[in-house]
Specification:
471 residues; six-stranded mixed β-sheet; two-stranded antiparallel sheet; 8% strand
Length: 471
């Protein structure tokens, strides 16, 4: 492998890790070995060799493809108008002499009609054909360059899609396909057209990223162009759609974690020395205990008590953690859950086996007595919990507190929390805020962390890692 290719390979692997893809050292070496046995001039073969060795899950593939297109682009620009001639019949048509036109400004109606006709022709064909992406590149060159701040120019997808308006071609393409292919169901034809339009939009976006990377550097655009995998998106930044996706992931994630927890407990640690069996075994070796005998370790399944902040600022984090914990209930002897804002109430019954996810969360919000004035008050909650539910915590209990430790400048009740933690076998606090934000504003994270070990838990990956170690 040549030195430039090796450098690019190392940088590409680093970019994948930076984007949240779990690429190990061994997998990086496997990919490097794969490069020595494939035809490097075949770009798609190179893409699939990398994907086969480094992409583990389908949800990681979009980010991988976006980074691959940046580090191994299909073409490189040689100058301002280098790609203007790409695409054969798709070449941009210049304006009439004496008609100045700014970059990105649409041309005359006749020009646009010709380009839209060409796009319509390509959308009814194979989106993997070379001319399909060549046309997208030429359209980015034709419309994608627009003025930016400081008398500079940059590249954008929006002007290209605005000029060509591929979505407005659906009815026209649908009529043409149904007329030509007589037996094709309308739903199938509509699906194919929509898929090809998405592929065109992706090709435009990919070429825009390539051009920006050439001008500003690959590393800079790579960080902005690849969304992190869903398991690494911060709980506090989840959109409604992302939260819905996470809820669908609860049970598959719980099954994976349960398998790991069971295997780890079976392996376990060696038990204490069994003196009698060791002495008895030593008789066969003249009284020398060459083979110590150990008592089998009894796996411990903890009782779990969850105390979760249900206020709006951390609700997504608390809801998902509750759902995951109850999906893992078989890993614990008993699970009891309590929610609070400025009052506390038990919510275990809402998460009974087989309960609907959204129904459980909705019932908790509507029926649980967790709101008095609506402003989070950790000190009052700890005091009321100790008074009403103190017997829930015992020497076999693991206490798990979920919240951001922001108490609206109310008294923190540190002594009460110390008493609760002292009654439990273990106590943990999961905080969804980034560690640098602890102790800012009304946060009393460090004070609480001095009593209960506090862990940053910003996303599903960190939560899963914590659950695996819970004992």
């Amino acid at each position: 492998m040549s030195e430039p290719l090796l450098d690019r390979h190392v940088a590409f692997v680093a970019a994948l890790r930076e984007a949240g893809l779990p690429v190990s050292v061994a997998e990086g070496l496997d990919a490097a070995r794969a490069l020595t046995v494939i035809d490097l001039t075949e770009r798609e073969t190179l893409r699939e060799a990398y994907a086969a060795t480094m992409v583990k899950r389908p949800r990681h593939r979009p980010g991988f493809d976006a980074l691959f297109d940046l580090w191994f682009p299909p073409v490189t620009s040689d100058g301002p108008a280098a790609s203007a001639s790409e695409g054969g019949a798709a070449r941009p048509v210049s304006t009439l002499p004496g008609e100045p036109r700014e970059p990105g400004e649409p041309g005359r109606p006749a020009e646009l009609a010709g380009l839209r006709d060409r796009l319509a022709e390509l959308l009814t064909g194979d989106p993997d054909a070379p001319e399909f992406r060549a046309f997208a590149r030429s359209m980015v060159e034709r419309f994608g360059r627009v003025p930016a701040a400081g008398n500079r120019q940059s590249w954008f997808s929006y002007p290209v899609l605005r000029a060509l308006s591929p979505q407005t071609l659906i009815a026209r393409l649908l009529d043409a396909m149904l007329a030509e292919r007589g037996g094709v169901p309308e739903q199938v034809a509509r699906h194919q057209i929509s898929r090809n339009i998405r592929r065109f939009e992706e090709a435009v976006a990919s070429d825009v990223r390539r051009r920006i990377a050439e001008e500003s550097g690959i590393e800079k655009i790579a960080k902005a162009s690849v969304a992190p995998p869903i398991d690494r998106v911060d709980f506090l930044r989840l959109t409604k759609d992302e939260l819905a996706r996470l809820r669908r992931e609860v049970h598959p994630l719980a099954r994976r974690l349960a398998t790991r927890l069971t295997a780890r407990r079976k392996r376990g640690h060696r038990g204490r020395l069994d003196f009698r069996r060791t002495v008895r075994a030593s008789l066969s070796t003249g009284g020398v205990p060459l083979s110590p005998r150990l008592r089998p370790r009894r796996p411990h399944r903890p009782e779990l008590v969850i105390l979760c902040d249900a206020s709006g600022s951390v609700a997504a984090f608390s809801h998902f953690t509750l759902l995951l914990t109850f999906a893992l209930r078989e890993q614990f002897t008993k699970v009891r859950a309590f929610a609070f804002v400025d009052a506390v109430d038990e919510i275990t019954a809402f998460f009974r086996p087989g309960a609907d996810v959204l129904d459980a969360v909705t019932r908790m919000a509507e029926e649980a007595d967790i709101v008095r004035f609506g402003r989070t008050d950790y000190g009052r909650v700890f005091t009321r919990f100790a008074e009403r539910y103190g017997d829930a915590i015992g020497p076999r209990t693991s206490l798990l507190i979920l919240g951001d430790a922001r108490s609206n400048y109310q008294a923190p009740a540190l002594d009460t929390l110390r008493l609760l933690a002292g009654e439990a076998r273990h106590a943990y606090w999961l905080n969804p805020e980034p560690r640098p934000q602890w102790d800012t504003g009304d946060s009393v994270a460090t004070a609480y962390a001095g009593i209960v070990p506090m862990y940053e838990c910003r996303n599903v990956a960190q939560l899963a890692a914590f659950v695996e170690e819970l004992d």
